Amino acid sequence: MLTAKEIRESFKEFFASKQHQIVPSAPMVVKGDPTLMFTNAGMNQFKDIILGNVPIKYSRVADSQKCLRVSGKHNDLEEVGHDTYHHTMFEMLGNWSFGDYFKKEAINWAWEYLVDVLKLDPKRLYATVFEGSPAEGLSRDDEAAGYWEQFLPKDHIINGNKHDNFWEMGDTGPCGPCSEIHIDLRPDEERAASSGAEMVNKDHPQVIEIWNLVFMQFNRKADGSLEPLPAKVIDTGMGFERLCMSLQGKTSNYDTDVFQPIIQVIAGKTGTKYGENRQQDIAMRVIADHIRTIAFSITDGQLPSNAKAGYVIRRILRRAVRYGYTFLGRREAFMYSLLPVLIETMGDAYPELVAQKTLIEKVIKEEEESFLRTLETGIRLLDKKMEETKAAGKTVISGVDAFTLYDTYGFPLDLTELILRENGMEVNIEEFNAEMQKQKERARNAAAIETGDWVVLKEGEAKFVGYDLFECEAEILRYRKIKQKNKELFQIVLDQTPFYAEMGGQVGDTGWLIADDEKLDVIDTKRENNLPVHFVTRLPKDVTVTFTAKINEKKRIQCECNHSATHLLHEALREVLGTHVEQKGSYVSPEALRFDFSHFQKVTDEEIRQVEKLVSEKIRANFPLEEHRNMPIAQAQALGAMALFGEKYGEEVRVVKYGSSIELCGGTHIPATGMIGSLRVVAESSIAAGVRRIEAVTAEGAENYTFILQDSMRELRALFNNVPNLAQTIRKSIEENAELKKQVGDYVKEKVATLKKELIAKAVERHGVKVVVYRGEANVDAIKDLAFQIKGESNMDEKVFFVAGIKDGAKCALMVMLSEPLVADGLDASKLVKDAARLIQGGGGGQAHFATAGGKNSDGLAQAVDQILEAADLK
């Protein structure tokens, strides 16, 4: 029986024998593509080639690509762990042809590999072909069906609809019919009783798709019409985990050697046995799947966070923690300890797991511990909601409350439902779903971009000349209109441009497109599908003329100073803190720089000073820029350039060198380090477990920062009469102020104690209730303390009603405190305060036993207090 490692290698060897270039997997986390957060298919890294935006280097390519599917139309998250074949992270084996071979070869080689090489039983195989779409003028894919008839009987060739057998990159772009290969893994007796053809694409767990052959031959335009592609493309994707299941005689992907080593370690750590309890089995499968996703995301530079791709990873991690918490009894972090077995199973194919083991473990452990605390908080909040609901004589908690638990506290709905069921209660799902839909609509509206079709004026490749020039002559290759947040903009692609398109943390250039009689502002430049796209608010009068494309030179140079400084900073951090430091992200704008790096403790003030001194030395040395374009990556690494995990490098790279600082970088840089002037670190912080962030300024920004510090120091000295030892004087002043505060506090306590005695002495009893009223000028916090003291000193069964109308400087406030027997009788301090707050032109609220309201009309205080007493029938 072939192992997973052997299967992966056999695929590469087979297509290498068919003259395919074997390329490494691209990172699972996508950078520099605004349309995609994660690599969700093998074709993602070849999108630029398919779109015709970059030249074809190899017409035949094959690889094993790590993918992630958890959002959009490819959302398998809720199925993961519950069935046998869905995953978040998975490997996709694929082969591509860019304008070379087409349907015949793709089908012939797929059959040869599956049947002749891997020895799969051909009687168990089925192929689907596109049935056609009369509405779009598309006929059945008889060509593909004809090639399949060489290998399969006609009853194993099944027509598929547009949903299953017409592949599209998105709403627009390359598309075409596809042919799926399915395998029937059912026992012989079941196969004899019913045909596998009836089970294809019917979600049967043993009749599954293993390979999809996509025949891209059309381009979908914005109006929905199709036009033929100039160069046809073959794009195939085979699920590696499903292939392993088929070859290893298993009925579940989780029973293969891809997952079983991880599952067995989980079972050992949780004191359970896989295969004995359905819920525990699901939990172990979820954790085994999710640990792969989380580990690979971190190696590719995506840490868990509260935004975008980071939020997706945090959600996956929390889902795994929650399953361990609920079904495996895990109350302490443990997922991080699964990393050694993951490395054992996948480290050979993906050495980044080995290289970043410590970072992955620390990030996962901290995230686990944080969410376990969140779970405890959520359970306490849910307990309170259940108590309130039961007290109201109800058994259904509000869907709005359940959504708040989910959205604000990260408390999963299914855990809410589980706890409620155990207490004979349920949640209003319709309300929850309505809240979820509102959130989705908000997110969709915020991110919605309407794009028109590209209007192509001339064919050509967009060339970047900004390494050498700040301006150049340019012609428009294509343009289109877009609408974002109800704002109309235009995107323009030039045949050559000095504008740097946002990438690698460096923001895009701004500037102008200048013709004889007009000057257009370029407000941003971004990279989309490897095209540098210039954003303008209007189109030029004549789009066919030759323009002068000119960048904002001052902003570019400021940006370059900051970018070049990040290289020097990176090297200095490695010198001061150690060679474990590695860049984990950066942001470079004309105003400042931000540099994220791996390090496991706070960088001390002394270490920051050392780093600043080292960078300053390199700036004063005025090292010239040594730039090597199109250097073979092996030569660049031999030179000392460090490749970063999570980045996709081609066979040729650009190397940027300043003295001993050597980095692979596509950004723009200053001619010599002296132009940076100086660097000053303005902040250092933690952004995740094992990852720190430094924020800094350079050049003019560093000067301004220094001026602000000098001005602040000058003002402080003036405040203290220019004393020679300012720090000592301020320290003494703080100590004296603390002593004075203590004395004032003691005085206030005495006043409150005296006032309390007076109020209690004046208290009246109405209907068995002791009514304590305060009206006057005072500090609101002092009266709050007084109210709690009065309540605390009363007997448990004593009915005490405290109300206050307080004038505090220019503001005023109402306050109500009720003892527990009054709350039990149905009085509500929050309602009383809210109803009366309008009389002081304010608002407020609180809890049933204590509430406050603030306002600005102190003339209404007396009336407001009277209204509260009347409403409580205590006037």
UniProtKB/TrEMBL annotation:
Instruction: Note whether Nucleotide-binding occurs among the keywords.
Output: yes
PANTHER family per UniProt: ALANINE--TRNA LIGASE, CYTOPLASMIC, ALANYL-TRNA SYNTHETASE
Provide the taxonomic classification: Bacteria, Pseudomonadati, Bacteroidota, Bacteroidia, Bacteroidales
> In this protein, which residues make up the domain named Alanyl-transfer RNA synthetases family profile?
2-708
Q: What is its main location?
A: cytoplasm
Q: Which family does it belong to?
A: Belongs to the class-II aminoacyl-tRNA synthetase family.
Please quote what the entry notes about the protein's domains: Consists of three domains; the N-terminal catalytic domain, the editing domain and the C-terminal C-Ala domain. The editing domain removes incorrectly charged amino acids, while the C-Ala domain, along with tRNA(Ala), serves as a bridge to cooperatively bring together the editing and aminoacylation centers thus stimulating deacylation of misacylated tRNAs.
Q: Which parts of the chain are coiled coil? A: 422-449
Q: Where in the cell is it found?
A: Cytoplasm
Source organism of this protein record: Parabacteroides faecis
Known EC number(s)? 6.1.1.7
Report what the protein is called.
Alanine--tRNA ligase
One MF term in the entry's GO annotations: alanine-tRNA ligase activity
Gene3D superfamilies referenced in this protein's UniProt entry, alphabetically: 2.40.30.130, 3.10.310.40, 3.30.54.20, Bira Bifunctional Protein, Domain 2 (3.30.930.10), Threonyl-trna Synthetase, Chain A, domain 2 (3.30.980.10)
List the catalytic activities from the record. tRNA(Ala) + L-alanine + ATP = L-alanyl-tRNA(Ala) + AMP + diphosphate
Cofactor notes: Binds 1 zinc ion per subunit.
Q: Which cofactor does it need?
A: Zn(2+)
Identify the keywords attached in UniProt to this record, alphabetized.
Answer: Aminoacyl-tRNA synthetase, ATP-binding, Coiled coil, Cytoplasm, Ligase, Metal-binding, Nucleotide-binding, Protein biosynthesis, RNA-binding, tRNA-binding, Zinc
